[in-house]
Amino acid sequence: MIKNTPPMGWNTWNTFAKDINEALILQSAEALVSTGLRAAGYEYVVIDDCWALRERDRNGRLVPDPEKFPHGMKYVADAVHAMGLKLGMYSCCGAMTCAEYPGSLNREYTDARTFARWGVDFLKYDYCFKPAGLEGKSLYRRMGLALANSGRDILFSGCSWGSDDTHLWIGTTGANMWRSTPDIFDSFESVKDLIKRQYDILPYGGIGCFNDMDMLVVGMHGKGNVGLTGCTDDEYRLHFAAWCLLASPLMIGCDVRAMDGETKRTLTNRELIAISQDARGNRPYMMKFWDNADLPVIVRALANGDVALGFFNMTEGNANFWVSADDLGVPCFSGKRLEGKEVYTGEEARFVNGVVQSEVRPHSCAVYRLHVVNAR
Ligand code: GLA
Predict the structure, then answer these.
(1) In this structure, which residue's CA is closest to atom 12 in ligand 1?
(2) Do 91 and 136 share a domain, yes or no?
(3) Which of 49, 111, 121, 126 is catalytic?
(4) N or C: which end of the chain has fewer CB within 10 A?
């Protein structure tokens, strides 16, 4: 399936890992609807690893664990669809998944058909237990073709963590998004590391195959499977804004049944989601302020001519960011200027002599949506 905007949804892994079951999936789907997350654009409910029995059935098919999914997966898919949502599932190109359930190696077509029969709309495809002698790109192409021939439109979400120069071959596999990073953890160090990995690979994302920086940890507050120290609300806001500006898929990882108000506000920020889902799909660019990789400035040209500008302070001290309007494509002698607001606070951008400045606290960000107006 080709999606023209970064896919959005919720995934079980970050909080629940192996502790998943039908009730959790259906309650979480209901929560996506009742909290307004579905209306904000989150549509995929993704069951990650640990849903299957450890062995295939006599016909070589994957079997959902009957203790976790007593009515099978078609039932879950139907219920999720009835809520206006889509169902995602998980497998792996190796002999086993990362948590050691059966993988799809040499069973690609059988499994693609199984997922299609159940009514699955999205497949996350991992990279564990891959035989060293087989190339990841061939194995991903196999699954890409199997899904294309499965009889159902299934979004293919590659998850090879950027290994083996994924960016060079993923676009030939039929994948619609590709994991460019190792796993995220709920700490600011992890968020910062994943953002810094983007400087060199940004050209390899975009419409057709979005660069997936991994699921969001917003609102986990240290709880659950990848919960470590947790992050502050400022840090979660920075994390969410970076994923939006960099056009990463937005897959929520917290327990959506128990979100606090601040988490919901961050995840449903309309301005940021509009930047993430911008129809033009332009690739962003990223600069190091004062040549410091911990001070990224991210810019994205939007469909209506607006410019999204983000200042990200990942250092321990205050940062006085500035960018010249020339760097945003609107030189001050053009007879035009830029104006606009910060997306979280609503504060006006301050342009003086064609330079926009902003003082940003440690572990915090300022993101502006700027539009071009006639200079007075
Ligand atoms: C890998 C992936 C994670 C998750 C786990 C499941 O680590 O990168 O996102 O799917 O496997 O075991």
Answers:
(1) 98
(2) yes
(3) 126
(4) C
Range of the domain at 165: 8-276
| Residue 353 CB-density burial (10 A; 0-12 exposed, 13-18 middle, 19+ buried) | exposed
pLDDT tens by residue, 79-94: 999 999 999 999 999 9
Threshold 0.90, pTM exceeds: yes
**Nearest residue by C-alpha to atom 6 in ligand 1:** 49
For residue 157, tell me if it sits in a domain.
yes
What Rg do the C-alpha atoms of the chain give, in angstroms?
21
pLDDT at residue 211, rounded to an integer: 97
pLDDT at 186: 98
49 is annotated as an active-site residue: no
**184: CA distance to ligand 1 center in Å?**
10
Query: How many folded domains does the chain comprise?
Result: 2
Tell me whether residue 332 is in a domain.
Answer: yes
Residue 1 has pLDDT above 70, yes or no: no
Question: Hey, which residues does 367 pair with through a beta bridge?
Answer: 310
Distance CA 286, CA 277 (A): 18
pLDDT tens-place string over residues 269-287: 999 999 999 999 999 999 9
The answer on pLDDT for 2 being more than 90 is no
* Structure tokens belonging to residue 4: 């023209």
Confidence of residue 333 (pLDDT cuts 50, 70, 90): confident
H and E: helices and strands count for the chain:
11, 16
- One-letter amino acid at 161 equals W
Both tokens of 319, joined, read 């940062």
Nearest CA, atom 8, ligand 1: 183
pLDDT digits (tens, 9 = 90+) for 3-62: 899 999 999 999 999 999 999 999 999 999 999 999 999 999 999 999 999 999 999 999
Considering the domain architecture, whether residues 45 and 105 belong to the same structural domain is answered as yes
48 ligand 1 Cβ < 6 A: yes
CA distance 145 to 103: 17
Q: What is the mean pLDDT of residues 54-74?
A: 98
Residues 260 and 296 in one domain: no
Among 276, 306, 336, the domain boundary falls at 276
Active site residue 183: yes
Note whether 189 and 42 are same-domain residues: yes
Q: Is 20 in the pocket of ligand 1 (CB under 6 A)?
A: no
Is 3 inside any structural domain?
A: no
Task: State which ligand 1 atom lies nearest to the alpha carbon of 159.
Answer: 8
Nearest to 244 by CA among 207, 220, 270, 219: 270
